[in-house]
Amino acid sequence: MGNHSSQNKGDISRNETGETSKKSFFSFSYRTWDSIFRSSLKISAVFLFLLIGAMIVSLIIFSFPVIKQTGLKILYGTNWDPGNDEFGGLPFIAGTIITSVLALIIAVPFALSVSVFLGEYFRSGPLSTIVNAAIELSAGIPSIIYGAWGLYVLVPIVQKRQASMDGDAIAFGVSILSASILLSIMIIPFAASISREIITMVPQDLKEASYALGSTRYEMIKNVAVPYASSGIFAGLLLAFGRALGETMAVTMVIGNLNEIPKSLFAPGNTIASVIANEFAEASDLHISALTEIGLILFLLTIVIGFLGRMIIVRMSVK
User: Fold this and answer.
1) Of the four, 57, 92, 148, 315, which is 20 to 30 A from 156 by CA?
2) Residues near 202 by Cβ (< 8 Å), separated by ≥ 6?
3) Which has more confidence, 300 or 23?
4) How far is CA 165 from the centre of its chain?
5) Domain 73-318 is in which class?
C-alpha cells in the first residue's frame, strides 16, 4: 500500500516535472521567436536606411564628373545646352516646384470636400460605394492615360482660354498651367482617400459632445472633425505632393518641354523628371552625369520635403 502510494507520487512528480519541462521548452521557444522577430525588424529598418544611403552615394558618384567640371552651377544656371557642356538646371527645378505646388493648391479643396463628404455625410450606401470606386479607379489609372487625356482634351481648353485672354500672344496650350491642372487631377484620389480614412476615425464621443453644446453638423466638422484629423489630412496631402514632384510621363506630354524658366502660367516649361525622360536615352558622357545630378537634386528635394512634413505633422499632433 505504501509502495503503491509512493509510486503514484513518483508518477505525479514525473508528470509534473514533464509538464514543467514541456512548458519551459515552449516558453523558451516563444522567447526565441520573439527575439528573432525583433531582430528581423531591426535588420529591415537598417537595410532601408542603408539602401537610401547607397542610392545617394551612387548618384553622387555618377554625378561627380559634371560636379568636378561645373561645380554647383546646375543649381543656379539657366542655360541648358548639352552640346556646349552647359548644364543649368534652374528652369527644371523651378518648373518642378511651380507645377507641384500649384497642383497641390488646386487639389486641396476638392480632396478635402470629397473626404468630408464620404467620411461624414455618406459613410455607406450606393452613392458612397460609387464614389469610393471612382476614387480607387482614378488612383490606378496609368499616367500615360492621364497624359493622353490631357493632351487631347485639357490642352485645347487651356489654349482657347489663353487665346481669349490675350489675342496677340501665341497660344500653345501645352504649358505650366496644363501640367498643374493635370497633376492636381492625378493627386486628388491619393489625398482624398487618406483624408477620408482619417476623418472616419474621429471619436464619436467628441462629435456627440459638440452636438450637445449646440453645434450644427457644419460647426462640428469645422471645429472638431477637421482639426482632430488635421495631422492625418496633412500626411495625405504630403503623399500627394510627393507624387506630383516625381510624376514624369503625364507631365512630359502637356508641359511643352521648353528648357527655360516659365514667365507665366501659360508659358511652356519643363520639370526635372521630364528632362530626364526626354534626354537620357540619347545622352552620353558628361550629359548623362548632368542628368544624374539633377535627378539627385530631385531625390534630395523629396527627402527634405518629407522631413519637413514629418516635423509639421509631429507639431500638429502635439497640439
Assistant:
1) 92
2) 224, 225, 228, 229
3) 300
4) 35
5) mainly alpha
Q: How far is CA 193 from CA 104, 241, 267, 293, in A?
A: 15, 14, 32, 34
Q: Are 183 and 247 in contact (CB under 8 A)?
A: yes
Residue written as grid cell 459632445: 209
For the chain, what's the residue count? Answer: 319
The answer on pLDDT for 6 being more than 60 is no
Q: Which residue in 141, 175, 138, 169 sits closest to 156, CA to CA?
A: 175
Integer Cα distance of 285 and 282 in angstroms: 10
Compute the distance between CA of residue 142 and CA of residue 154 in angstroms, rounded to an integer.
Answer: 17
Q: How far is CA 212 from the centre of its chain?
A: 38
- Alpha-carbon gap, residue 13 to 15, rounded angstroms: 5
Place of cell 542603408: 50
Residue type, 82: P
CA distance 19 to 137: 57
Q: Which residues pair with 80 in a beta bridge?
A: 87
- 94-137 pLDDT tens trace: 999 999 999 999 999 999 999 888 888 887 778 888 888 888 88
- Short-list 229, 227, 278, 214, CA closest to 252: 278
pLDDT one-digit tens code per residue, 300-310: 988 888 888 77
Report the C-alpha gap between 54 and 170 in whole angstroms.
46
Closest to 297 in 3D by CA, of 274, 273, 279, 261: 273
Cβ atoms of 268 and 256 closer than 8 Å = yes
Residues 6+ apart with CB under 8 A from 146: 182, 185, 186, 250
Query: The cell 519637413 sits on which residue?
Result: 308
